[in-house]
Write a structure and sequence with these properties.
By secondary structure, the chain is an alpha+beta fold. 53% of the residues lie in helices and 13% in strands. The strands form four sheets. It has a six-stranded antiparallel beta sheet, sandwiched between helices. It has a two-stranded antiparallel ribbon with strand order 1-2. A two-stranded antiparallel sheet has the order 9-12.
Length: 495
């Protein structure tokens, strides 16, 4: 049989058809991309009215919009120095003067120049239009920056709330000012309710009052829960998902801690699920080194976790006060937290945010792990998707920094960072931006802690560096082996 042949015409038609398909695919991709961009701009623009009502957040918006600032500078330079002569040349070409020849006494001829009256008008119209287009382009860049601004506002607000909680006892006035400044950086329920139906606003006012009661008037008491069971006293701290209040259980007549989800996150289904997840995680964990949960309730659209209240402060506060802590005490605290983590791991819970501020002390000095707001229930149907980075950057494992799935060895890494900080007063990785810190976790080896604290025994340093291995397989396989290594790493007289 002969080989089939294709004529030149058929070949050309086939080529034209393929080229047409490719062009259509490109056009479809362009339209899809343009549609997504338009939707993102509309979504960002919807947040603009709420943002302009927040002066502090609006200032942050303007100051951090680097692309818009550069765009504005370029637009002003172009339209001030380049556009006028260019538009002048264009209008001269499009609307030239006309010349007529006139005869004088039938003997002499002279040219008469008739100015084109449209030229000046078109020049002004094109120049104004150029300014409108240029400034509109800058406005679009500003609107695109709104989601980034809101995220930055949340991060700064959480930092302020944490600082306010840390200094609440030493400087209550400054603490209250920080809390108010933090609230000014959040776009929360109050802004979202501006467009809500009238019948929804009354319940919203009740929720807003609950949110602000301990910030605006710390002397006033507020009650939540069935039959007004729990009395709110004051703000005492802030975690990754909510604000912690000191409260009182009027039924069992005991002090409690009341953790409330941030008002700005109430309508975020993912954060709401994570808040419920924290309650489920804590409810299943009963261990001497884990803060127990007493109750979970909803009041006026807000969700609360009722927990044991601890009066001994946090590990973060102890590090701030003493910088490098006693070696024996640090190892003992690390072993206690490792025991709590080991129990959580046995119940299928990975904490994912182990850090000194999440280690609290009871009145007798017992350390307990709290804030399971970013916990992953390994046996649950509710999974945090890969690629979503949760936790505190300075304490994240490399795999968590990269947005990959994590297991109990990630908690061991974070505990290693915390122990490093206890012994040296510093975290091994720091930087001006979150991206810099995460990149260091992934690529950079930590400075040996003994270079910062000469008292650290060599065997203890080896344990810490093993906890901080970049690859999970190179770390301790579980907390039992870690605890054994830690207890064997220090001499009886270390300190």
């Amino acid at each position: 049989m002969g080989t089939p042949t294709v004529s030149n015409n058929q070949s050309q038609r086939l080529f034209d058809r393929l080229r047409g398909l490719e062009t259509g695919a490109r056009a479809a991709r362009f339209l899809n991309s343009a549609g997504k961009e338009a939707a993102r701009i509309r979504e960002s623009g919807a947040s603009l009215p709420a943002l302009v009502r927040k002066p502090f957040l609006m200032r942050l918006w303007i100051l951090t919009a680097r692309k818009a600032q550069i765009g504005l500078a370029i637009v002003v330079l172009l339209l001030t120095f380049v556009a006028p002569p260019s538009i002048g040349l264009l209008t001269d070409y499009l609307y030239p003067d006309t010349i007529t020849i006139k005869s004088v006494l039938g003997i002499f001829e002279r040219n008469k120049i008739n100015a084109n009256l449209l030229r000046s008008k078109r020049y002004q119209q094109i120049l104004v239009g150029s300014w409108v287009i240029g400034l509109g382009f800058v406005l679009v860049m500003l609107i695109n920056h709104i989601p980034v601004t809101i995220a930055l506002g949340k991060e700064r607000a959480r930092s302020m709330m944490a600082e306010a909680a840390r200094i609440s006892k030493k400087d209550p006035d400054h603490s209250e000012r920080l809390q108010r400044s933090a609230t000014a950086l959040l776009i929360g329920e109050q802004e979202k309710r501006q467009t809500a139906a009238p019948e929804d606003r009354q319940s919203g006012k009740q929720a807003e009052k609950t949110r602000l009661i301990s910030l605006t008037n710390p002397k006033e008491k507020w009650f939540i829960g069935p039959d007004q069971r729990y009395r709110i006293e004051k703000v005492i701290g802030s975690g990754g998902a909510g604000v912690v209040h000191e409260g009182y259980d009027t039924v069992l007549e005991r002090p409690v801690a009341l953790k409330q989800l941030f008002a700005s996150l109430v309508q975020d289904a993912e954060h709401m699920e994570r808040f419920r997840q924290e309650a489920l995680a804590l409810a299943s964990l009963s261990h001497p080194h884990i803060v127990p949960i007493y109750d979970l309730l909803e009041d006026s659209g807000h969700f609360w976790i009722v927990m044991e209240i601890l009066s001994g402060g946090s590990l973060g506060e102890r590090i701030d006060e003493s910088k490098a802590m006693d070696i024996t005490d640090s190892v003992e605290i690390a072993c206690c937290i490792a025991e709590g983590l080991g129990f959580a791991h046995s119940e299928g819970v990975v904490h994912r945010d182990v850090k000194p501020m999440n280690v609290l002390f009871s009145a007798n000095g017992t350390p307990k792990l709290t804030d399971f707001g970013t916990a992953k229930l390994t046996e649950s149907g509710v999974q945090t998707r890969e690629g979503l980075i949760l936790g505190s950057p300075a304490y994240m494992s490399p795999e968590q920094s990269a947005g990959e799935s994590v297991d109990k060895r990630s908690d061991i890494y974070s505990l290693g960072i915390s122990l490093y900080q206890m012994l040296t007063g510093n975290v091994p990785f720091s930087g001006k931006s979150t991206g810099q810190i995460l990149a260091q976790h992934i690529t950079q080896a930590p400075q040996p802690p003994s270079e910062l604290n000469k008292k650290i025994p060599e065997r203890l340093q080896e344990v810490i560096l093993a906890m901080l291995n970049k690859k999970p397989a190179d770390r301790f396989k579980d907390t039992d082996s870690l605890i054994s290594a830690l207890r064997q790493s220090i001499p009886a007289t270390a300190g």
